[in-house]
Amino acid sequence: MHAHEIEARCAQAQRSLNIHEGPLIRAVIMPINDGTWRLFIVIHHLAVDAVSWRILFGDLQLACTQLAASEAIALPDRTASYRTFVRALQKSTCDAQLDYWRNVNTVAASLPSTPSNTQSSRAIARLNRNATRTLLQEANTAYRTQINDLLLVAISRTLCRFANVDSLRIDVEGHGRCAVA
C-alpha cells in the first residue's frame, strides 16, 4: 500500500465516525509495501480525551509487545475512574491541605488594570538556541519538572514584575485522573 492509499483509508475511517448513530471508534489495519503492517485507530473526540488516549495507547503497546514475545496479555490494573477519584478525594487527607488551598484562593488571579511601574503594556522575551536547549533538555531534569512547569513560572514571574505585585495566581486546567490510593 502506498502513502496516498494509506492517507485515503485513514481519512475514510475518520469520516465514518458518527456521534449519533455510530461507530464512535474504528480500527484499520493496513499492509505496507515493505512487508510491515500499520494500525490506524480513530475515536470520536466526544468519546475519548487525551488522558484516556494515552492510557489506551499504552495498553495497546504493552499487549503488542507481549504478543510478539509469545506471552499472555497481562494489562495493568485499571486507573481510577473520575467517580472513584472524586470519592477518594472526598475521603482523603484533603483536610490537611485545606488551609494551603484557602490561602492560594486569596491570591489575586487578575492583573491590575493599570500597571504601576511600566511604560508599556507589552513584553517580549526571546531565548537563543543555547538557552532553548538548556530549557528543554537540562533545566527540567535538574529540578524534576516538566517544561510546562518552568514556562508557567517564567510567565508568572514576568507578569508579577509587569504588574508590580509579589504574587499572582494562575489557574490551570487539569484532568485530575491520576490514580488515588
Describe this structure as you would to a colleague:
By secondary structure, the protein is mainly alpha-helical. The chain folds into two domains: 3-68; 82-163, no CATH class. The protein has helices at 3-15, 50-68, 82-91, 94-106, 129-142, 147-163, and strands at 25-31, 37-43. Strands 1-2 form a two-stranded antiparallel ribbon. Strand 1 and strand 2 (37-43) form a beta hairpin. The longest helix has 19 residues, at 50-68. The mean pLDDT is 81.
Question: What can be said about this structure in brief?
Answer:
This protein has 181 residues and is mainly α.
> Please, how many domains?
2
The order of strands across the largest sheet is 1-2
Q: Structural class of the helix and strand makeup?
A: mainly alpha
Helicity range: 40-55%
Please give the count of helices.
6
**What is the overall silhouette?**
extended
Radius of gyration: 24 Å
Q: What's the total count of β strands?
A: 2
Which spans have pLDDT < 50 for at least 5 consecutive residues?
none
Specify the biggest β-sheet. 2 strands, antiparallel
SSE string, helices as H and strands as E: HEEHHHHH
User: Mean pLDDT, nearest integer?
Assistant: 81
Strand content: 5-15%
Q: Could you tell me how far the N terminus lies from the C terminus, measured between alpha carbons in angstroms?
A: 47 Å
